[in-house]
From TrEMBL:
It comes from the Eukaryota. This is Neural cell adhesion molecule L1. Belongs to the immunoglobulin superfamily. L1/neurofascin/NgCAM family. One of its GO terms (cellular component) is growth cone. It is found in: Cell membrane; Cell projection, Growth cone. Residues 705-731, 1160-1204 are annotated as: Disordered. Residues 626-721, 723-819, 824-935, 939-1033, 1035-1120 form the Fibronectin type-III domain. One of its GO terms (biological process) is brain development. It comes from Scleropages formosus. The keyword Transmembrane applies.
């Protein structure tokens, strides 16, 4: 029983818990309902009011091809009924029709029977207790799906160069098809300005070419509404080539025909004007507006290679006259269009539905426009007012309906309908007369934000009937309507125009005679301002241009960040993924600017509250297009008039036109400049030459360059005539004695003026009025023989052709051929001016002896040598030249003297003269010898130095190579090279002295030496050298040691201006060995290599100078490197080779010891070699003279190597003196000792220590 009680208690507890949870849920639901009721009390009351019927979707007119296409849409939440063709129509009674229960929409779902029974005009009526609304009328057209009729394949043959038109003729339909011309592979036929598709679907060829021949021109008609594409039968086009093709044909229009077309367009629709020309070359088409001359680029565009002019949305401003111009090089064709724009009715003002209280007066305004002017009619609940009983309170005047002192019975739906011949429009509006208590529908404490200058509208939407009256107050309790910029709208909203920061604050809207009110808050922020707007920019075609748009934005409007949009002519721009045309941002970058990029560009900076914009423009400029339509008029034999039409100047005025011509007879393929004209002149008068075939072309220029030349004009041929000019530059070019050669500049064929062109040459002896000799020739020159030597003649050359002779030519005097002069100049006198200049005078030759035109004289000079006729000995053994000769040309027939320069002083010369003309030189005059006086000598040939001691310097020199006289001595100037101190002068009066020693010099200073030679004329040019004495040398310091595997490299910097000294290196192998000594090392070497060391061993190096150590160093050589040399097989191979060589050597020695003899030379060399062994040194107990320890060094001065020595080591360890070579380098030599040749190591090159010469 205890368990039962426990089980019962548990079950009761669960039941109680479930009851508590259910009770809580009910309480929550009640609370929610109460809250919702309290929050939405006003909306609930509003929704409880019945409204007159409202139509939210109207049926539309269209064409149906199948039953599935028939759907008429109508939405209204009231009762509805359909009317078809004025008769009641119940869709639900038709079993093939499916209707919607919630709307008036119905559709046909069954395809049984013809669908034509559904064709008609439909209108739907929606009704409730408050009135009836009607829909706009919709027309349903039914058609069968288009099908192709059986037809034959077409074959069209056209001659090359002719036009061609391929017809399509698709099945007719109320919905015109889209036409596509394709081939059998369903590839579109390539279209161009030559091959285009017209609006009628035809394929037009302005002229055909052989490649147009094909058999698969297929027209595809696409019926979008019927979802059908019909391919027609292929058309075969055959182009037959013709040799008689006229390659220049004036344009004519294939479509439209005639000279003028009148077009009627409806406002808001698109319109396309079409001009398709034929011609050869392919004509281009341009469009212009004749009404005001301006074709709007923002409202029109050209398409289909310029053949179409499209208006996307035409309006009344587009009405007027237009012209299309087709042009090529042969002419133009024009067609005029008169565009008339009419309009279906469109609303200007619609009447608004509203609630009214009993007793109010109602005014409904309904205004519409159209061309022709539409008619306005009113209906009440779908019934025309004209058919209802008159109501005194209701009046209609035009589009305004007035209803006074309304009652609840006046609640109804009124229809305003506007109609003209182009259409009907309808609007439903209701009048709802009702009484309701006032309510404020706008929520309380709403915050409004605007920017400065905007209009702020603070809402206070009320509901009630009669309409509640409200008032607005600010937070200071003042009546805000007292301000001129504040007004209250009809719907109760408070409008603050041109808001400013002082308008910020709190406002209160309250209802009269009630306690209803709401509060609102207004924040006025700084307006967004564009501080860097886009500019009006000109850019050359193909280049990039940037427009900037920087804006100043209030901080409160930066989150979210402002957006910058760019528009071109009102159309929004987008960045494209396939090219980089536009780069958008705060700046707009337009790449590769072309003509289509021209226009007005607007940037819009959009924030959360406001939007501002600024506009700039891009004008694309470029060099002009070529002129066209070249026309020849007023054609005369000597002139014509050329006119042309300028091409597009691409927004840069044309400054100049250049006219060129091609003369096909004499200058074919070469265009010649003719004339130029200013950019505002389009016709010029052109002078012509007879007997020419002319074509012309014109080129335009603007600031961006020249256009391409225009197409050539037609050819014009001028008639022949007699010559009007004679050849120029008539002269004689006689070169042979007794021959008269007459030459002239041949005339250009352009001036022949007619056929049979020749030159008539006339000549006679000068000074005689004898008969003219004459001859006709075709080219220059003309030769007359037996004319004497250099005889004068009168000559003339005249142009002639088959039509006559040219004007009388100019008389020219010439001469027959020349011969060499017969005489030489006489009475030649030579007067020396100085050592290098003489003056020569002579008596000219007689005129008769010249036998031609005297051109001048030639003076032949030859240097015989110095005056003493002995070559002067100079260093090197060279003698001065004794055979110098040259020629001086004295041009001019009147010259009788000449000054000769550049002679060598103190020399003997020989002079001869000749006269010369164009034929050559005459005989030589007799030789005339003369002497030139002494001059100053040249600089000494060399200057070198020796330094016997630290304070003395010996100068060695060579005499001048050009003494220019007898030397009498030398003059030496010297001073410190830094120009400090006095200049010292030393005169040497003995010309045979070539050296001198200067003592008491400062060893720390460089000296500048100036040495010159002297003659009786004076001192000559100086040779300049800089030198200094040498200092006592010492062993090197700062020695750098680098160890190799079996050697040690030592380097140091040799002291400048120091004498060379020698030192030694003692080295000891610390792994077991004895002291060894290197060869002598010169301090001027700068580098030495100690060889023959053991790899991987520690060595001690000791450097000795004058038997004392001046530097020590320990170093370890590198260990052996691994490689094939350490391999066992390699060692065995080498051992075998060495053993074999040893056996061969033993055999050779045995053989020589038995019978061989040494030569004397070998014996002497053996003795010398024995003398070259290293000597012992008492300073060291032991050292090895093993020749395997030889070292390699650079060449050393004063000490020889242990190998290859030719002398003993006399003077071991002493210093050496160094003298200067002629070129300024040092020569080492012993001072007070016998010479020691330079030591040579393994790689010696024998170089000496450098000298000090600046």
């Amino acid at each position: 029983s205890g368990r039962k009680c426990l089980r019962f208690a548990r079950s009761r507890g669960l039941c109680i818990l479930h009851m508590i949870l259910a009770l809580c849920f009910v309480c929550v639901c009640v609370c929610v309902c109460v809250c919702v009721y309290a929050m939405h009390n006003n909306l609930c009351n509003l929704s409880a009011v019945m409204q007159p019927p409202v139509i939210t979707a109207h049926p539309e007119s269209y064409t149906a091809f199948t039953a599935e296409d028939i759907v008429l849409t109508f939405f209204s939440h009231c009762k509805f009924r359909w009317v078809k063709d004025g008769q009641q129509f119940d869709p639900a009674s038709d079993p093939q029709v499916l209707t919607s229960e919630k709307s008036g929409t119905f559709s046909v779902v069954s395809g049984d029977g013809p669908i034509s029974k559904y064709m008609g005009k439909y209108r739907c009526y929606a009704s409730n207790e408050l009135g009836t609304a009607i829909s706009e009328e919709a027309q349903l057209i039914t058609e069968n799906t288009p099908i192709l009729t059986k037809e034959k394949r077409q074959r069209k043959t056209v001659e090359e160069g002719d036009k061609a038109i391929l017809n399509c003729n698709p099945p007719s339909s109320s919905t015109p098809p889209n036409i596509h011309w394709m081939d059998k592979n369903l590839q579109h036929i390539h279209q161009s300005d030559r091959v285009t598709k017209g609006l009628d679907g035809r394929l037009y060829f302005s002229h055909v070419i052989p490649s147009d021949s094909r058999d698969d021109y297929i027209c595809h008609a696409q019926y979008v509404t019927a979802r059908t594409i019909l391919p027609k039968e292929p058309i075969q086009l055959i182009v037959t080539p013709s040799n008689s093709v006229v390659w220049h044909r004036k344009p004519h229009l294939l479509h439209p025909t005639g000279s003028e077309t009148r077009v009627l367009a409806l406002r808001g629709q698109s319109l396309v004007l079409e001009c398709i020309p034929k011609g050869l070359p392919t004509p281009s088409v341009t469009w212009q507006r004749l009404t005001n001359g301006v074709l709007s680029t923002s409202r029109t565009s050209t398409q289909n290679f310029g053949r179409w002019l499209r208006f996307n949305s035409i309006d009344e401003s587009d009405q007027g006259d237009y012209e299309c111009i087709a042009n090529n090089s042969q002419g133009t064709a024009k067609h005029f269009f008169t565009v008339t724009v009419e309009a279906a009715p469109y609303w200007i003002k619609k009447p608004a539905s509203n609630l009214y209280a009993p007793g109010e007066n109602v005014r409904l305004e309904c205004h519409a426009e159209g061309i022709p002017t539409p008619t306005i009619t009113w209906s009440l609940n779908g019934n025309p007012l004209s058919g209802l009983d008159p109501e005194p309170r209701r009046t209609v005047h035009g589009g305004t309906l007035r209803l006074g002192d309304v009652t609840k019975s006046d609640t109804a739906v009124y229809q305003c309908e506007a109609s003209n011949k182009h259409g009907i429009i309808l609007v439903n509006t209701y009048i709802h007369v009702i009484e309701l208590p006032p309510q404020i529908l706008t929520r309380d404490m709403k915050v409004y934000r605007v920017t400065q200058g905007q209009t702020a509208v603070l809402d206070c939407e009320t509901f009630g009937s009669p309409r509640p009256k409200i008032q607005w107050n600010s937070d200071t309790l003042e009546l805000v309507l007292s301000h001129a910029w504040v007004s209250q709208l009809v719907n109760g909203s408070l409008q603050i125009s041109n808001a400013s920061p002082k308008d910020s604050g709190s406002y209160m809207c309250s209802v009269f005679d009630s306690n209803l009110s709401i509060a609102a808050s207004l924040d006025v922020l700084n307006r967004t301002v564009i501080i860097s707007p886009p500019e009006h920019k000109r850019v050359q075609r193909g280049k990039s241009v940037t427009l900037t748009c920087d804006a100043l934005v209030d901080d409160e409007l930066r989150n979210p960040p402002p957006q910058t949009l760019w528009r071109k002519d009102g159309q929004k721009l987008h960045e494209s993924s396939f090219d980089d045309k536009y780069t958008l941002g705060s700046s707009l970058i337009v790449a590769n600017a072309q003509s289509e990029d021209e226009g007005l560009y607007t940037c819009e900076v959009i924030t959360e509250l406001d939007m501002t914009n600024a506009s700039g423009s891009i004008t694309v400029v470029d060099r002009p297009d070529p002129p066209f339509n070249l026309t020849l008029t007023n054609k005369q034999s000597r002139s014509l008039t050329l006119s042309w039409i300028p091409g597009n100047d691409h927004n840069s005025p044309i400054n100049e036109f250049v006219v060129e011509y091609e003369e096909l007879r004499s200058r074919k393929g070469h265009w010649q400049f003719l004339l130029n004209s200013s950019g505002d002149i389009q016709q010029v008068k052109i002078p012509l030459q007879p007997f020419c075939n002319y074509t012309f072309r014109v080129t335009a220029f603007n600031e961006f360059g020249r256009s391409e030349p225009s197409n050539p004009s037609e050819t014009y041929r001028t008639p022949p005539a007699a010559p009007d000019r004679n050849p120029e530059d008539v002269r004689t070019i006689s070169t042979e004695p007794g021959v008269l050669t007459i030459a002239w500049k041949e005339m250009d064929k352009y001036y022949f003026n007619g056929p049979g062109y020749q030159y008539k040459v006339m000549w006679r002896a000068a000074g005689h009025r004898s008969h003219w000799n004459q001859s006709a020739v075709s080219s220059s020159p003309f030769v007359v023989r037996e004319a004497g030597t250099f005889q004068p003649f009168e000559i003339k050359v005249k142009a002639v052709n088959q039509l006559g002779e040219g004007p009388d030519p100019i008389l020219v005097t010439g001469h027959s051929g020349e011969d060499r002069p017969l005489m030489a100049p006489q009475n030649i006198a030579i007067t020396p001016v100085n050592g290098s200049v003489v003056q020569v005078k002579w008596v000219p030759v007689s005129r008769d002896s010249v036998q031609g035109h005297l051109l001048g004289y030639k003076i032949y000079l030859r240097r015989l040598g110095p005056q003493d006729m002995r070559g002067i000995r100079v260093q090197g053994g060279h003698e001065s030249d004794n055979g110098d000769s040259w020629v001086v040309d004295v041009s001019g027939s009147n010259q009788v003297e000449e000054v000769l320069e550049g002679l060598r002083p103190y020399s003997k010369y020989e002079l001869k003269m000749t006269a010369y003309n164009s034929k050559g030189e005459g005989p030589f005059s007799g030789p005339h010898e003369f002497d030139t006086p002494e001059g100053v000598p040249g600089a000494p040939a060399s200057l070198t130095f020796d330094s016997p001691s630290e304070t003395s310097l010996t100068l060695h020199w060579s005499p001048p190579r050009d003494p220019n006289g007898k030397l009498i001595g030398y003059l030496l100037h010297y001073q410190e090279s830094n120009n400090n101190g006095l200049m010292k002068v030393l005169r040497i009066n003995d010309p045979d002295v070539y050296h001198i020693t200067l003592d008491n010099l400062d060893p720390k200073i460089f000296y500048a030496f100036y040495l010159s030679a002297s003659t009786s004329t004076g001192p000559g040019e100086s040779i300049v050298r800089t030198a200094a004495t040498l200092l006592d040398g010492g062993p090197p310091s700062n020695i750098t040691v680098t160890a190799g595997e079996t050697n040690v490299n030592l380097s140091w910097v040799a002291g400048e201006r120091y004498r060379n000294v020698v030192f030694y290196i003692m080295y000891l192998n610390k792994n077991g060995g004895r002291w060894e000594m290197s060869e002598m090392i010169n301090s001027t070497q700068s580098f030495y290599q100690l060889q023959g060391l053991q790899s991987g061993s520690q060595y001690r190096l000791s450097f000795l100078f004058n038997n004392s150590t001046f530097w020590e160093k320990e170093i370890k050589t590198e260990g052996p490197k691994g490689g094939f040399a350490t391999q066992g097989w390699f060692i065995g191979l080498i051992s075998a080779i060495v053993l074999l060589l040893l056996v061969l050597l033993i055999l050779c020695f045995i053989k020589r010891s038995k019978g061989g003899k040494y030569s004397v030379k070998d014996k002497e060399e053996g003795q010398v070699d024995s003398e070259a062994r290293p000597m012992k040194d008492d300073a060291f107990g032991e050292y090895s003279d093993n020749e395997e320890k030889r070292s390699v060094s650079q060449p050393s001065l004063g000490v020889e190597s242990k190998l290859g020595s030719d002398d003993s080591l006399a003077g071991y360890g002493d210093s050496v003196d160094i003298q200067f070579n002629e070129d300024g380098s040092f020569i080492g030599q012993y001072s007070g000792h016998r010479d020691v040749p330079g030591a040579v190591g393994h790689d010696s090159s024998g170089a000496t220590s450098p000298g000090i010469v600046l």
